[in-house]
Amino acid sequence: RGCDYHDLADYAAIQINDTHPSMVIPELIRLLGEKGIEFDEAVEIVTKTCAYTNHTIMAEALEKWGVSYISSIVPRIYQIIEEIDRRFRAFLAERFNNDYQKIESMAVISDGKIRMAHLAIVGGYSVNGVAWLHTEILKNKELHSFYEIYPEKFNNKTNGITHRRGLISANPALANAITEKIGKDWVKDTSGLEKLLKFADDKIFLEKLSDIKYTNKVRLAEYINETTGVDVNPHAVFNVQVKRMHGYKRQLLSILYVIKLYNDLLANPDLDICPKVFIYGAKAYPSYKLAKEVIKLINSVADKINNDERIKGKVKVVFLENYCVDLAEKIIPAADVSLQISTASKEASGTGNMKLMMNGAITLATMDGANVEIFREVGEDNIVIFGMSSDEVINRPADYSARRILENNPALANAVNQIQNGFFGVPNAEFFEVINDITNANDPFCVLGDFDAFCKAEDIMDEKYRNTDGWRKSMLVNIAKSGVFSSDNTIRNYAKEIWNIPPFEVKGE
Hints:
Elements: H1 8-11, E1 14-17, H2 24-34, H3 39-49, E2 50-53, E3 64-66, H4 67-73, H5 75-95, H6 100-106, E4 109-110, E5 113-115, H7 116-122, E6 127-129, H8 132-142, H9 144-149, E7 154-156, H10 163-169, H11 172-182, H12 203-228, E8 237-242, H13 251-267, E9 276-281, H14 289-306, E10 315-319, H15 325-331, E11 337-340, H16 352-358, E12 362-365, H17 371-378, E13 383-385, H18 390-394, H19 402-407, H20 410-420, H21 432-438, H22 451-466, H23 468-480, H24 487-499
Parallel strand pairs: 1-2, 2-6, 6-7, 8-9, 8-11, 9-10, 11-12, 12-13
Antiparallel strand pairs: 3-5, 4-5
Helix pairs in contact: 2-3, 2-5, 4-5, 12-23, 13-14, 13-20, 14-21
């Protein structure tokens, strides 16, 4: 566009979206060198141009690449990274009085590996997390050493979702009902959804919201029957857990609860519970054996429970294949309960939690990721929180014992034994990784530690669902408070606080 490359940072911002594209930093330094810019100035320009979004503290996303690999594939890029590391080490040595351990822990290159997250932090001017809690963990725990020396770089930008797709397109009946009540301005400015709060005691409107939810449940029930052959009751509570299959997201926790509930019904078929349908949608990374075994387990439990007439259809389990956006738009508008039960501190943000709340689902959650902000918005009467806090997980006592938890919890131990002993029609070897994770590996994601709390949370949700007026009011509050999570707000904050981009006002419609 004819700008002077020396002034590149005044014209361009490059957002490094998670650790994967960190190579843009040395590559841009190389390209500027080709334009005749000296190395020192190129580094300064790039550091003012690049910004880094951290999306997770999980090790698999904090990439580390072997020096021998990078140096052989892209030798010039490696030379540049090596020089960035040398300069940063010199800065650290002066800052921390040659503290070797401190320098090694923060260096870009260490132990034969290039730490791409460190490269992104050192080579940019901004580091942001994607939810308030996530950013606090980055500042106070995971990236604390960097926060100490670069406090001005750190900021939060909570992820967002678009109501245009997740509500207006996916749930037009609800969108139309909202517009009829408060006008259409909310479509462009979702903060206007808060106007719905004026109708929290309007029984006719609340009943309309409930009728829309029921229609969506009927539609999903028909889809489930067509694709799986399972008949589900649309009057039952639809418990929905749709997200990537991962140990920390704890689909295992919910299916263990389902097994326990099934055993309770076998012992007492007249047990007074709200009928429940547990709906899962997830994909597992191809080499992630634990995740794939949990998918197998959910389907095995479903085969057993869905065909057992003794429990009178009070519990059904459905795993819907090929979870994708199109399928999400069938499931989310029909959800009653949004299961957001990740191990506290492990989920950076989550956006499924936001999509479900804006469609009137009530969240059952740990205080993790954006669940913390949902709780702040809707209040304790309109969400159910359970389980260990992020601090409790991070500072889990050294004597935490999965085996001791099992010894002291017969119902949980029975569920685990049933997985092992072929009760669900599958040889126990099929679930080796599942059992190993919660026993020999000492339950790294605190599935067993939070089990009792999750069972109690489900009981609380039962009580809430029986209170029809209260449930409908909670639906409305969740919809009304979802506007703050609009991606319009998120992008506006990136533009204003990181990219320094002023808004461009479009004239007319």
